[in-house]
Design goal:
mainly alpha, 2 domains, 68% helix, globular, disordered C terminus
Length: 418
């Protein structure tokens, strides 16, 4: 075979069709990932390591979560919204100068109090396992297959989220429940999931646009009622004063983003990437606004004209991560949800050209954006949600997205090849 024919075969089978993405290879990669994730968490929590303070506290993001929940049980929840006092508290308990901010609303603090009664490391493990289990259930509802769901929760982004003890598995699970609820016409349940998702408000910026475009008033009302009820529960548990302090310190998060208090290389937003490339705050926010308007337009168009959830989820979730200026690497876990819908549709109806390879790129790079940005100066993170948004738009514009019956999806076949 000539070199030209070899190149043609490689391009068509390797890139265009993604024929090399077989179950054998994917299964082996997932097995290695699962073993690596398990050993990594065991090392992090059970073995002395570089992430531990002198007294053994694991200095990861969950430390601030555990302390926030603990302050609820101790009757002093307002401390977490006072940066000076909260930093001093962390230093006192950990014996380290490394501290973490807490910029989440009091509703999330109430949820964290459920785990705060446990010792720190047990709470860390419990939080990661329970939220990842919810994400697995969400992926199972989407794909109709437990094996595929298990593969999706051990992709690099999920592993990155687990090591940090962050909440992206929880927010991704809630997004999945919301989208499945709409697909199966369980609109009130979809609204409940959406109302709980307000623990991270920046992830819901485009959701009202989607609901209004699709004239989905029941989910809108359900989400509003759930949000109000959740807020009232937090007021009953924490007191109204905590909300006043939360709103008073809210500008701190914006200031931290502007001055680089959170490394721009660890961010995945258009804003963060442009700041790392040397652009100023105002110019970066202007480009961020343009990206946000473009994402909003795509969401409005798709949710107004298409019922296909593979298209809707890809455009909404991809657009969500493009519209917010404040999102970090672990938030790429959210892309698991549109990937689940796209893989389900691809296994059932066939993958469009290049889709499998593009999905593999998104999944493969989902935990690699900080090293690429910080070590190599390549802030590629916004490209990943952009690829997902593109795949959704392409499906709609090409007519690949049909109007499917809602209900339990078919089980996947024994091969990933289209």
């Amino acid at each position: 075979m000539t070199s030209r024919k070899l190149t043609t075969v490689f391009w068509e089978k390797g890139i265009r069709d993604g024929a090399w993405l077989t179950w054998d290879r994917i299964g082996f990669a997932c097995l290695c990932s699962a073993i690596g994730l398990s050993l990594g968490l065991a090392w992090l929590l059970l073995v002395p390591n570089a992430f531990a303070s002198p007294n053994g506290t694991v200095l990861m993001d969950y430390f601030s979560f555990w302390l926030a929940g603990r302050q609820v049980l101790l009757g002093a929840p307002e401390i977490v919204y006072n940066p000076v006092e909260f930093s001093a508290l962390q230093a006192e308990i950990s014996g380290s100068e490394t501290v973490f901010g807490f910029f989440y609303p009091p509703t999330f603090q109430v949820l964290l109090s459920v785990f705060a009664a446990l010792p720190y490391k047990a709470a860390f493990a419990g939080f990661v396992l329970s939220t990842t289990a919810l994400l697995c259930l969400s992926c199972r509802l989407i794909t109709g297959n437990w094996l595929l769901a298990a593969c999706l929760i051990i992709v690099p982004a999920c592993a990155n989220n687990a090591f940090h003890g962050q909440n992206a598995a929880l927010t991704a699970a809630l997004y999945g429940f919301f989208l499945v609820g709409i697909e199966r016409q369980r609109l009130w349940l979809a609204g409940i999931a959406l109302g709980i998702l307000t623990i991270k408000p920046q992830l819901g910026i485009l959701v009202p646009v989607a609901l209004i475009a699709s004239l989905n008033w029941r989910t809108f009302v359900s989400a509003s009622v759930t949000t109000l009820a959740f807020l009232l529960v937090s007021v009953a548990v924490l007191g109204f004063g905590v909300w006043q302090i939360f709103w008073a310190q809210a500008p701190v998060a914006s200031a931290m983003m502007e001055i680089g208090g959170v490394e721009w290389g660890k961010m995945i937003s258009v804003y963060g990437s442009l700041r790392q490339l040397g652009l100023g705050h105002i110019a970066s926010m202007a480009v961020q606004a343009v990206a946000g308007i473009g994402a909003l337009a795509c969401v409005w168009n798709v949710w107004r004209t298409s019922d296909d959830m593979a298209v809707r989820s890809a455009v909404l979730v991809g657009g969500t991560l493009l519209v917010t200026p404040f999102a970090l690497s672990y938030d790429l876990t959210l892309l698991v949800i549109p990937c689940a819908f796209l893989i389900r549709e691809g296994l059932r109806d066939g993958f469009p050209p290049y889709e499998k390879v593009l999905l593999a790129v998104v999944i493969g790079l989902s935990a690699s954006t900080p090293p690429l940005a910080i070590l190599l100066g390549l802030p590629v993170a916004p490209l990943l949600p952009l690829i997902i948004l593109y795949l959704g738009m392409r499906r709609m514009l090409s007519g690949k997205a049909g109007r499917h019956e809602t209900g339990e999806p078919d089980h996947i076949s024994g091969t990933v090849s289209a």
